[in-house]
Design goal:
Cathepsin D, subunit A, domain 1; 7 helices; 46% helix
Length: 265
């Protein structure tokens, strides 16, 4: 079979784009669209490994390195626990796709498909690939809109708070009920459980922010962190407020005002 480099790269770039979309959804990660494209393109270019004879352990190490670099390009390195989770699911989803491609190879016309070194190549016209990609994009967009309508407004994000050379990483909830702002700066306030607050707060920079609850008016302790990271979005224009009561499943309650800033960044 004659392998055309342009079809090889385009096909694998498209496949890896949808794989990275799946990784993003499963790990509840946030990243910019352009980083998804660049990560998929890098993974697509790595499909040129198909021309290298199988070098055993060397080929395995090359594929592991490629997967790790793809995750770094697409999502970054932080937080570490989320990074390893993304790498794991990238491999898992890729293996599932590889199994599907192998099934196609075994049960259908072997003259149009080549599967080598974990890389798939279909001997089809470029126009066919473009048309299939457009149709796939339309279907995925429609399904996304349908699921978004049925899904609750609250969303989970991986959050990292950095302050005084300390950092805390855990899953936070984007709560539509939290739209609290600091009355002086106008910055949004996110609420964190007391145990987390005490690990990273700066006593010299503590301030009190008024809040209204069903029980009346009260004041909460808050500080401005050096950096707050939600997925791929980072800012220091935010206050971290202490929640005296346990937050149960989520240790961080994000401010709904941050969601618009994240997607406009």
């Amino acid at each position: 079979m004659t392998i055309y480099v342009d079809i090889l790269i385009v096909l694998n770039t498209l496949v890896n784009y949808f794989i990275l979309l799946a990784v993003r959804k499963i790990t509840r990660s946030y990243t910019k669209r352009w980083r998804l494209v660049v990560g998929a393109l890098f993974a697509g270019l790595s499909s040129l490994l198909i021309f290298i004879e199988n070098l055993g352990i060397v080929m395995t190490l090359l594929k592991i390195a490629t997967a790790i670099l793809t995750v770094i390009i697409t999502f970054g390195l932080k937080p570490p626990n989320q990074f390893f989770k993304r790498v794991f699911f990238l491999f898992a989803i890729t293996f599932i796709f590889g199994g599907f491609a192998l099934a196609v190879y075994m049960f259908f016309d072997k003259d149009i498909l080549l599967y080598s070194n974990g890389i798939v190549y279909f001997d089809v016209d470029m126009t066919f690939i473009v048309v299939c990609s457009v149709i796939s994009y339309i279907i995925i967009t429609m399904l996304t809109k349908l699921t978004d309508k049925k899904a609750p407004k609250n969303k989970e994000y991986m959050v990292c708070i950095e302050n005084n050379s300390n950092s805390i990483s855990c899953v936070g909830l984007m709560d539509t009920g939290n739209n609290l702002r600091d009355p002086f700066s106008g910055y949004p306030v996110i609420m964190v459980e007391k145990s987390i607050f005490q690990k990273i707060f700066n006593e010299e920079k503590i301030r009190l922010i008024p809040v209204s609850t069903i029980n009346g008016e009260s004041m909460i302790k808050a500080f401005k962190p050096q950096k707050l990271t939600i997925g791929d979005y980072s800012t220091d224009k935010v206050y971290i407020g202490e929640c005296e009561t346990p937050l149960n499943e989520y240790k961080i309650i994000l401010n709904i005002n941050l969601e618009g800033e994240m997607h406009n960044d």
